Amino acid sequence: MILKTAKLGKSFGGLAAVQDVDMTIEQGKITAIIGPNGAGKTTLFNLLSGFYKPSSGRIEFLGEDITHLPVHEVARRGIARTFQATHLFQRQTCLDNLIVGHRLRTRVNVWDALFRTPRHRRELRKCVERAFAAMEFAGISKLAHKPVGAISQEQQKRLSIALALVTEPKLLLLDEIAGGVNPEETAGLGELIGKIVKSGITVCFIEHKMQMVMNLADHIVVLNHGCKIAEGPPADVSRNKAVIEAYLGGETNAHAT
Amino acid sequence: MQFNWRSWIFPCLLIIAGLFVPAVVANAYYIHVIIMGFIWAIAVYGLNIILGYTGQLSLGHAGFMGLGAYTVALMSLKLGAPFWLAMACAVLLNIVTSWLLSFIAFRTRDHYFAIFTLAIGVILHHVMEKWEKLTNGNNGLSQIPGFGGIGPISFDTAAARYYLIYAFLLLAIYVSWSLKHSLIGRTLMAIRNSEDLAKSIGIPVNRGKRLAFMISAALTGMAGGLYAGYIGFLGPSIASITVTFNLLLYLLVGGIGTVAGPLIGSFIVSVLTQFLVVLQDYQMLIFGPVLVLLTIFFPHGLAGGYYKLKHRWRTASANRKGKAEPAPGRAGGAAMAEASGVAEVSGAAEISVAAEASDAAEASGTAGAKGAVHREVR
Fold first, then answer.
1. Hey, is the C-beta of B311 within 8 angstroms of any chain A C-beta?
2. Which of B238, B275, B264, B267 is nearest to B71 (CA)?
3. What is the pLDDT of residue B76?
4. Which of A10-14, A35-39, A44-48, B357-361 has the highest average model confidence (pLDDT)?
5. Partner residue facing A129 (CB), from B196, B202, B341
6. For B27-61, how does the pLDDT look when each residue is reduced to its tens digit (9 = 90+)?
7. Which of A147, B38, B54, B240 is 20–30 Å from B203 (CA)?
8. pTM for the full predicted model
9. Sorting pLDDT into bands at 50, 70 and 90, what band is A100?
10. Is the pLDDT of residue A152 over 70?
11. Strand locations in B195-247, DSSP E?
12. pLDDT tier at B287 (50, 70, 90 boundaries)?
């Protein structure tokens, strides 16, 4: 178990976006978070990565309480994330994007920068090496010197995964990484996720594409209206009554859909 | 290690040319105008760190300039401190002040940060104007002792003063350049480009902004100290809002976020203003339209425009040669990066220079609203 939440909750004003969520992410496994639109999936990610402060509950990462840590500290502990709307340093080259991604593992200070010390040279070189390695891993080596604005949506998705990877995370949170890309590209991204897990990084992702979820996930957590309504292996979840109801509209809320 | 000597020829020639200015320019007034251009440029280099690199618009920089100038003036006049000690104290005081302010300032963002710093600038200006016992109010302080000699070197002649200010200018340029091409600069630019993304990759955003603010205030305060020592007279108008907007104007004309921009902008605008002085009130008649044309055709300043043209020309010539893809040597894979990591680093630095145009574009994008504010105020 790499991450565990207990009674995690977040409300905005009177609206509870996430309520009493108890979930665990197992080390080395792929966990998927699914649920209808507005179920609180992205809010949950924002809580896990520190962007939102929970209204209640706690988050434990590798046995340590990270509930109240600032975002950059959470990243430093080893949780990396991507954003739903692909979020990159636009107009810069792919390489530039990735170089700064490894910044958190370096210890250069302003004096190193001003006096261009050997440490600075060493660490900048390390950042560049990691950037190239991440690009190679994500299959975008050829794009190193292209500005982000000039590459395709799928390549941007790959770049944002590479950016998360250069931070050397232990847990990678991917928010709808296959949104807006075609089926073949989705399959390619699925392969990339498999490769990431094989390299020893735990992955947790939010996805609407059910085929991808069923193919990849070892464990699925289902959210609806901010609450966890089911969890388990794909086979169980796909037969779960509450899940089917939430997705297709059961007796109780059929009229609302 | 691959050393790209060609990109160094022009800057080196410029530095050498700077050395010959006093020998070539005989007119004392011209020398004075050039020196003033340099002093403003140093202040603008300060502003560029927080606004250009980090994307935070500070409208209080005249306040920092005034703080530096008054520290030097008061310490030398009231305490009889030697100039260089006063100068060191001025820079230090600016660093401490900006450090203290940063704890409140960076609870705000964007426009609110601009308003906050504007208020700080106004307060500093008022203190200098109204604390008459100390600062002599609007009558100002006169007979501020000039630059003290360093060992056998004295700064009694115009040429010597020129070289002194020139050295400080080179220092400011060096700081800007080395910051920009370092991991620290990349960190600051990441903050500028997207705070959320910067946070998510583990960058402590507020710490970065604070650092930028301190370096920025230090450089601008240094310019203030030099101003006091050079002019020998000091009034509170040095800290006025007009000065802040002048600094902003120089930066916008020169090219926000670029290394060359502050020098180009301050130099061209301040020299131009000096030579348009003969026209008195009519100078704005010429100056206004020139500025309008400049912002229309060079929205990223002169330096930004230059990099853009150069970039376009390069891509065009690359296309002509039938290689739209970058040369294989530069698109090296991980294996190559391992084999020649240093070369790749220098390659990366070069790319950053090429991308400077887009950098400038982005910085001025963040400063879009700022530009609008600026035009309105003027």
1. no
2. B238
3. 93
4. A44-48
5. B341
6. 888 899 999 999 999 999 999 999 999 999 999 99
7. A147
8. 0.87
9. very high
10. yes
11. none
12. confident
- Name the nearest CA neighbour of B129 among B246, B241, B240, B231: B240
B157 in a structural domain: yes
Asked if the Cβ–Cβ distance from A120 to B182 is below 8 Å, we say: yes
Minimal C-alpha gap between A116 and chain B (Å): 8
Look at B140-144, B344-348, B370-374 and tell me which has the smallest mean pLDDT.
Answer: B370-374
CA dist., res. B37 & res. B22, Å (int): 14
Interface list for A 155-214 with B (CB within 8 A): 163-164, 166-167
Which residues are CB-contacts of B315 (< 8 A; sequence separation ≥ 6)?
none
At B288, list the tokens.
């206004």
In a domain, B300, yes or no: no
- pLDDT band for position A223 (cuts 50, 70, 90): very high
Mean pLDDT estimate for chain B: 83
> What percent helix, strand, coil does chain B show, rounded to 5?
80, 0, 20
Task: Please tell me the distance from the alpha carbon of residue A135 to that of residue B206, in angstroms, as a whole number.
Answer: 29
- Record the tokens describing residue B123, joined without a space: 């307060």
What is the domain count for chain A? 2
- Containing structural domain, residue B256: 22-277
B338 CB neighbours in chain A (<8 A) are 129
Q: What residue numbers bound the domain in which A142 lies? A: 87-168
Which of A141, A168, A195 is the last residue in one of the domains?
A168
Distance of CA A111 to the CA centre of its chain: 34
- Per the structure, the count of domains in chain B is 1
Q: How much is the pLDDT for B6?
A: 78
Beta strands A3-12 and A15-25 are antiparallel
Residue B361 is predicted with a pLDDT of 52
Task: With cut-offs at 50, 70 and 90, classify the pLDDT of residue A117.
Answer: very high
Q: Rounded to whole angstroms, how far apart are CA atoms B165 and B87? A: 13
> Is a pLDDT exceeding 90 seen at residue A232?
yes
Between CA B18 and CA B160, with CA B250 as vertex, the angle to 5 degrees is 30
Query: Of A139, A168, A197, which residue sits at a domain end?
Result: A168
Name the residue facing A163 among B201, B334, B358 (closest C-beta): B201
pLDDT (0 to 100) of residue B313: 84
B348 contact A CB<8A: yes
- Give the minimum alpha-carbon distance from B332 to chain A in angstroms, rounded to a whole number: 8
Look at B351 and A95 and tell me if their CB atoms are within 8 Å: yes
- Cβ separation of B337 and A129 shorter than 8 Å? yes
In terms of Cβ atoms closer than 10 Å to its own Cβ (0-12, 13-18, 19+), residue B173 is buried
Question: A117: which 2 tokens?
Answer: 């010390």
In chain A, what residues touch B362 (CB-CB under 8 Å)?
90-91
Does A49 touch chain B if contact means CB atoms closer than 8 Å?
A: yes
B208-265 per-position pLDDT tens digit: 999 999 999 999 999 999 999 999 999 999 999 999 999 999 999 999 999 999 999 9
What CATH code is carried by the domain that includes residue B92?
1.10.3470
How far away is chain B from the Cα of A142, in angstroms, using its nearest Cα?
A: 6
A183 and A163 share a domain? no
Cα distance between residue B151 and residue B149, in whole Å: 6
